[in-house]
Amino acid sequence: PCHFVYVVLNYHDHVGEQNEDIPEQPLLFVELPSAVTDPGYHNIHPADIDQADFEVGLGVVIRRTARNVSG
Predict the structure, then answer these.
(1) What is the mean pLDDT of each run of 10 residues along the chain (71 residues)?
(2) Rounded Cα–Cα distance for residues 14 and 7 (Å)
(3) d(C-alpha 20, C-alpha 3), whole Å
(4) d(Cα 13, Cα 21) in Å, to the nearest integer?
(5) Read out DSSP for 9-45?
(6) DSSP state, residue 64
C-alpha cells in the first residue's frame, strides 16, 4: 500500500493516558510504509531518552473500491 490510515485515541484508556477528552469524531492520521519495521529491527533513539514507547498497528488491505457506504 502507498500509505496507512490510523484511528487515534480509539481506546478510552489511551485517551486517559494522554489527558485528553474523548473525541466526538474519530481522529485520523497517515503513516508512510517506510515507518513499518521488521521484528528484528533495533530501535535507535537519543542517549538522553530513558524509555521509548512502542506502538503496534494492525493493517488491513482493502483491494476493492467501497460502494454504497453510508456514514
Answers:
(1) 72 72 80 78 83 74 81 66
(2) 12
(3) 27
(4) 11
(5) S-SHHHHHHTT-PPPSS-EEEEE-GGG---TT-----
(6) S
